């Protein structure tokens, strides 16, 4: 049996309806099984039977005369229980605000939790992982951040794309990206002064004061 990961213990029941080898029922006989299970929690393949103290395993053959016995048989119960990884919910939020003398980067949220789940590993790259120029060495655990405005040749603010990869046990690796843009801060300087007329050109200096 195969089930998706759900963060809890899951059970696969092995019953008489599963593949039974070597048993050829006599007319009137019925194979009865109960409590044979395989248990697993994390992603992986489980084959070891699980003994549930609240539901002990039992196997027998009910005969046509109403009696039951298993003296004529030896048995071995086996199975394969697979728990598969599931997709995580990844959100990568960018940043676009005016210069404030502080460093800024992207914000990564996994499975809609305020804090990263324990064991989650977040990697960052400034190179598109789908591009020909990408190399696995481009991934870094240090998040890139920017403080100052970067301008292009036309003096327009430049956006920096940050690519993100998140690895977390029991989940498929997730990818995302977002932009970080530091905008120029608008400064307005206003000055006022009053002087009497003197028939000549007069100057008012506007300074940082």
Please name the defining characteristics of this protein:
209 residues, 34% strand, four-stranded mixed β-sheet, mainly beta
Overview of the structural elements:
The protein has 209 residues and is an all-beta fold. The protein has strands spanning 2-4, 10-13, 30-34, 37-40, 44-46, 49-50, 58-62, 68-69, 81-84, 86-87, 90-93, 95-98, 107-110, 121-125, 159-167, 171-172, 174-183. The strands form six sheets. The chain has a four-stranded mixed β-sheet, with no helix packed on it. Strands 1-9-5 form a three-stranded mixed β-sheet, with no helix packed on it. The protein has a three-stranded antiparallel β-sheet with strand order 2-4-6, with no helix packed on it. The chain starts with a strand and ends in a 26-residue tail after the last strand. The relative contact order is 0.17.
Which SSEs are present, and which pair or pack?
Blueprint: E1 2-4, E2 10-13, E3 30-34, E4 37-40, E5 44-46, E6 49-50, E7 58-62, E8 68-69, E9 81-84, E10 86-87, E11 90-93, E12 95-98, E13 107-110, E14 121-125, E15 159-167, E16 171-172, E17 174-183
Parallel strand pairs: 1-9, 10-16, 12-17
Antiparallel strand pairs: 2-4, 3-7, 4-6, 5-9, 7-8, 11-13, 14-15, 15-17
Q: What does the oligomeric state look like here?
A: single chain
Name the average pLDDT.
89
The helix/strand series, from N terminus to C terminus, equals: EEEEEEEEEEEEEEEEE
Strand order of the largest sheet: 12-17-15-14
Please count the helical segments: 0
- The geometry reads as rod-shaped
Q: Measured on Cα atoms, how large is the radius of gyration?
A: 35 Å
How much of the residues is beta strand, in percent?
Answer: 25-35%
Cα end-to-end separation: 77 Å
Main sheet? 4 strands, mixed
Low-confidence stretches: none
Query: Tally of extended strands?
Result: 17
């Amino acid at each position: 049996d195969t089930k998706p990961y759900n963060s809890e213990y899951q059970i696969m029941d092995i019953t008489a309806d599963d593949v039974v080898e070597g048993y050829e029922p006599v007319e009137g006989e019925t194979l009865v099984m109960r409590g044979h299970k395989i248990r697993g929690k994390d992603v992986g393949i489980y084959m070891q039977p699980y003994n549930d103290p609240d539901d002990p395993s039992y196997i027998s053959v009910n005969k046509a005369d109403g009696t039951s016995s298993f003296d004529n048989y030896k048995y071995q119960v086996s199975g394969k229980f697979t728990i598969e990884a599931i997709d995580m919910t990844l959100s990568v939020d960018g940043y676009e605000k005016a210069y404030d003398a502080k460093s800024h980067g992207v914000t990564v949220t996994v499975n809609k939790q305020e804090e990263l789940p324990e064991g989650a590993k977040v990697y960052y790259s400034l190179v598109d992982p789908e591009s020909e120029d990408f190399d696995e060495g481009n991934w870094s655990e240090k998040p890139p951040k920017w403080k100052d405005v970067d301008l292009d040749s036309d003096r327009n603010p430049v956006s920096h794309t940050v690519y993100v990869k998140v690895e977390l046990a029991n989940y498929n690796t997730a990818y995302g990206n977002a932009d970080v843009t530091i905008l120029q801060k608008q400064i307005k300087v206003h000055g006022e002064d009053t002087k009497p007329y003197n028939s000549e050109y007069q100057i008012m200096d506007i300074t940082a004061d």
